[in-house]
Design goal:
Blueprint: H1 21-28, E1 32-38, E2 50-56, H2 60-73, E3 77-79, E4 86-88, E5 93-98, E6 106-108, E7 111-115, H3 120-129, E8 132-133, H4 145-150, E9 154-155, E10 158-159, E11 164-171, E12 174-179, E13 197-204, E14 206-207, H5 210-227, E15 234-237, H6 247-253, E16 260-261, E17 264-266, E18 273-276, H7 282-300, E19 309-311
Parallel strand pairs: 2-5, 3-5, 4-19
Antiparallel strand pairs: 1-2, 6-7, 7-13, 8-14, 9-10, 11-12, 11-13, 15-18, 16-17, 17-18
Helix pairs in contact: 1-2
C-alpha cells in the first residue's frame, strides 16, 4: 500500500521507532494508510489533533500484518472505532491509529457474526430483518461493534456482555477466537488481550416479537433525545455512575450544569455530558473534567471515575 500524503503538519520523529517506520508499515499493509491525519472529525465531539499514521487494515489478516510490523518497528498502536466515548489530545496521537476492520455479515441461525467496524446501529436492523430480538438496548449506542465490545457498552436495560458469544481478535502472532466468558465483562469493562484488535464479533439473539422490539428501541431513542444533548457534538457520558448514584446528579448538585470553559460546556440538558460549542479543545474539556472531579469530591466525598477514554499526548498540566 502506498503511503498517502500528510493532511496536516508533519509529526516529529517517533522516539524509539525505526526512522522511516510509516513508509515501512504502509509497505506491509494492503489497506489504507494516511500520515499526519487530523482526528477531530473522526470523533463524536469533534476535538483532537492528528495521528502520526491513520490506518484501516483491508481485513483481519491485514490487521495481523499491521500489528506484526508495528511490533518489529517498535511503533505504538491505538484502536479508534467510531470515535464516540473518546477524547483525543490536542497534540494528537503518536504511532499508528487503527480504524476497525470492515467485512461481510454472516448469519448462522440465531447467531450473527459481524465485522468490528460494523456500526452498532446495524445490529438491531439486521436482527429485525431476520425476525430476531434481544438487542433493544443498542438502539442509541453510537460507534462500532468492536468499540462497543471493548467497553461493554450498555444502558439500563442491557449490556454487550448479554449478547456476545465470542470475539475474534488480531495480534502480532495471528488471529485468535475468545469466548465471552474469558473476557471478564463488567460495568463498562472488557479484558481483551494486551495489544489485540477486535476484528469480528459473534452475538446470539432469539426469535421474538419484532414489532415490540422496534417499539422499545424507538422509545429508548426518544428518551435519549429528550434527556441527552444529541444535537451537539459530545463524547457521551464523561464519568461512570458511582454505586447507587448518578454522575450527572452529582455534577448538577455541585452547581456545574451549564458551566463553560472556553468552547466546552457541561450540558444544560444532562450534566454528565460535555458538549463542544464550536472550536472546543481537549484542554477545555479536561478543565471541565478536573473541576467536576474536585467539586464533587469536596462536596460529596465521591471520587468520579472516567468513562470517556483519553487518547494521545496530553500536556502534564492537563492530567484530569
Amino acid at each position: 500500500m502506498s503511503l498517502l500524503p500528510p493532511t496536516s503538519t508533519p509529526a516529529a520523529p517517533l522516539p524509539g521507532a525505526a526512522p522511516h517506520w510509516r513508509e515501512e508499515v504502509a509497505r506491509r499493509l494492503r489497506g489504507e494508510a494516511l500520515r499526519d491525519c487530523p482526528l477531530a472529525q473522526r470523533t463524536s465531539i469533534r476535538v483532537g489533533g492528528p495521528a502520526d499514521l491513520l490506518v484501516r487494515p483491508a481485513d483481519a489478516l491485514d490487521a495481523v500484518a499491521l500489528l506484526a510490523a508495528c511490533e518489529a518497528l517498535r511503533v505504538p498502536v491505538t484502536a479508534l472505532g467510531g470515535g464516540s466515548n473518546l477524547l483525543v489530545a490536542d497534540r494528537g496521537v503518536r504511532g499508528a491509529v487503527v480504524r476497525p476492520v470492515l467485512g461481510e455479515e454472516r448469519v448462522e441461525g440465531e447467531r450473527l457474526v459481524l465485522a468490528a467496524g460494523t456500526p452498532t446501529s446495524r445490529l438491531g436492523q439486521l436482527a429485525h430483518e431476520l425476525g430476531l430480538v434481544g438487542c433493544e438496548f443498542t438502539a442509541g449506542i453510537p460507534g462500532t461493534l468492536g468499540g462497543a465490545v471493548a467497553m461493554n457498552a450498555g444502558t439500563r436495560i442491557g449490556e454487550m456482555k448479554d449478547l456476545v458469544e465470542e470475539v475474534e481478535v488480531a495480534t502480532a502472532r495471528g488471529l485468535e477466537r475468545i469466548a465471552a466468558r474469558e473476557l471478564g465483562f463488567a460495568y463498562r469493562t472488557c479484558h481483551l488481550p494486551a495489544g489485540a484488535l477486535v476484528t469480528r464479533v459473534a452475538v446470539r439473539l432469539r426469535p421474538g416479537d419484532v414489532a415490540a422490539s422496534k417499539a422499545a428501541m424507538e422509545a429508548d431513542r426518544e428518551r435519549r433525545r429528550s434527556t441527552q444533548p444529541l444535537s451537539q457534538p459530545n463524547f457521551g457520558s464523561t464519568f461512570r455512575n458511582p454505586p447507587g448514584d448518578h454522575a450527572g446528579r452529582l455534577i448538577e448538585a455541585a452547581g456545574l450544569k451549564g458551566h463553560r470553559v472556553g468552547n466546552a460546556m457541561w450540558s444544560p440538558v444532562h450534566a454528565n455530558f460535555v458538549v463542544n460549542l464550536g472550536g472546543a479543545s481537549a484542554r477545555d474539556c479536561l478543565a471541565l473534567i478536573r473541576l467536576a472531579r474536585a467539586r464533587v469530591r469536596e462536596r460529596f466525598g465521591v471520587a468520579l471515575e472516567l468513562e470517556v477514554r483519553l487518547l494521545g499526548e496530553f500536556a502534564p498540566d492537563e492530567n484530569p
